[in-house]
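We recall that each integer encodes one residue's backbone shape. We quote one record:
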Amino acid sequence: MTPIWLKETPTGIVLSLYCQPGAKLTKVAGLHDGCLKISLQAPAMENKANELLLVWLSKQLRVPQKQIRFLSGQNSRKKRLEIWGSATSEQISQILMP
């Protein structure tokens, strides 16, 4: 079954994330309000948390950073990102499952 925070679209896979900047470690921290909760080691200032999120997701999912883009939430804790390329929704949910 596909998790609530992951949605397949004709153009790619959309992730609904709740990001918590300023954590000790960057990791999946569970679920929050229907979103996958990600703790980020970077602070929320000067776009550092967003940059770290893209780098971390790219490494975890083994997808080039250029294949991940923000759909919404660059200035919010709730973010929607789209991933396209070779990664499937099953692979993404297995890798990121809390």
Observations:
- The mean pLDDT is 95.
